[in-house]
Design brief:
mainly alpha; about 425 residues
Length: about 425
């Protein structure tokens, strides 16, 4: 009976997630607010049904009553989040709210399957983050002096990164975190946000050559500190975000071409300087030839994805624990193995829906400063998704970054929720002025 329930549930979850994903894009075909509201409500139905199905399967497999309590608390949390945005912000982008909740729901579900304790910690961080995030759209609308703090953003950002480079704990060859009062923090996740505000402030002031050189030097300083910390995934995100923002602000293709050339040269230098970069490149080129050492993680990831096929093995039926650091960098592999390739493709489409929504909001903003901030935050989110999934499927070398809102990691989760809240603030301000 257990196997039958598991088999039926995986198809049901794929169907529910497919319906949800379809609504992410079909909502734009509805011209009226009433028609869109119907779709948003329908998305909530798909979300709660998928969430319920997943936890019922886990409970049936483990017979752990804590899962039902944990599930109930999550339902209350998601309902509060959805209703709070509707009550506090009449013009909130409901699609972003729904997508944020859906991605967190998938994350909580797969983390509960992998490690109940880590799932609980992730949920607590999400709840605290949402309490803070709910006030950010109001602050974005009311506080106008944030564009005047450009140099403060640079000083704070560089300072935080230098502290990590000097005192941070080394994890898998990179210094990415330090611990305060028993709480481990990855400052890069927060510096990414203020870095975008810094670049937007500088380029909003002027795009003359001398000013661009100064901005580039300060941006390069962030990247260099990350390189010395051996956080090359973070350095790559900072570099790409700056390059995109510079190109859009200055509209000069030579800056973009020059930036790409510099990036290629820096990659070649990093390959020669850092052993763990060479290890990841070797594992990417031919993981099977080094499966006992460097290629073990990526091989296990590919085996998991291949084993899952289109429809997955079913929740709690795979072996994702064979993948090192599966809860963080390789959570997409665990999802693919147990929930299937179709489910994973839907997950990618939901992430793409968020990214496109970010860009759409950025293009509609009249204020050039806010436009650049929205573009930078959207690029940060979209490129991080690309790096994570690309590394997991061996499209690119693994960079050690997390899948936003899904992977285990408090700093990543908190930072991403803040990014969504800032974008919401821009959207609400635009709609209120329309």
């Amino acid at each position: 009976m257990s196997s039958v329930i598991c088999e039926v549930s995986k198809y049901l979850m794929i169907i529910l997630f497919s319906f949800y994903t379809w609504d992410c894009f079909s909502v734009f075909l509805r011209k009226t607010k009433e028609g869109q509201a119907i779709i948003f409500h329908r998305q909530n139905v798909w979300l709660f049904m998928l969430h319920l199905t997943g936890y019922l399967v886990l409970f049936e497999q483990t017979k752990n009553p804590k899962l039902l309590l944990f599930f109930g608390v999550q339902v209350i949390f998601f309902r509060i989040v959805v209703n709070s945005y509707r009550l506090l912000y009449e013009h909130a982008a409901q699609l972003l709210v729904n997508n944020m909740c859906m991605l967190m729901a998938v994350g909580f579900l797969i983390l509960t399957r992998l490690s109940y304790d880590k799932a609980v910690r992730q949920f607590v961080i999400a709840a605290v983050s949402m309490v803070i995030a709910l006030g950010i759209p109001f602050l974005v609308k009311k506080i106008r002096f944030i564009r005047k703090l450009t140099w403060l953003y640079a000083v704070v950002g560089l300072g935080a990164l230098m502290v990590v480079a000097a005192l941070g704990a080394t994890s898998y060859g990179a210094k990415i975190s330090y611990t305060i009062a028993g709480i481990t923090i990855q400052p890069t996740e927060f510096v990414k946000i203020i870095f975008v505000f810094f670049v937007a402030g500088m380029l909003h002031q002027s795009t003359e050559f001398k000013h661009v050189v100064l901005t580039t030097c300060l941006a390069a300083a962030h990247v260099i500190v990350l390189v010395f910390s051996r956080d090359l995934g973070g350095a790559l995100i900072f570099f790409v975000v700056y390059l995109v923002m510079l190109y859009v602000a200055a509209k000069n293709p030579f800056y973009f071409i020059g930036g790409l050339a510099a990036g290629c040269a820096a990659s070649a230098i990093a390959y020669r300087l850092f052993a763990h970069v060479r290890v990841r490149v070797v594992a990417w080129q031919d993981p099977l030839s080094v499966i006992d050492n460097e290629g073990y993680q990526i091989c296990q990831s590919l085996f998991a994805i291949g084993t899952g096929g289109w429809f997955g093995a079913g929740l709690n039926q795979g072996q994702p624990e064979k993948i090192p650091v599966v809860e963080q960098d390789f959570v997409f592999s665990a999802i693919s193995e147990e929930l299937g390739g179709i489910f994973s493709l839907c997950l990618i489409m939901v992430c793409m829906s968020c990214f496109l929504m970010f860009l759409n909001i950025a293009m509609q903003l009249k204020d050039s400063y806010y436009k650049l901030v929205a573009l930078g935050l959207g690029t940060t989110y979209g490129f991080q998704v690309f790096l994570t999934i690309g590394g997991v499927i061996k499209f690119i070398p693994s960079t050690g970054v997390t899948l936003p809102l899904v992977s285990y990691g408090g700093s990543s989760l908190f930072g991403t929720i803040i990014i969504f809240a800032i974008i919401q603030g821009f959207y609400i301000s635009r709609e209120s002025e329309a």
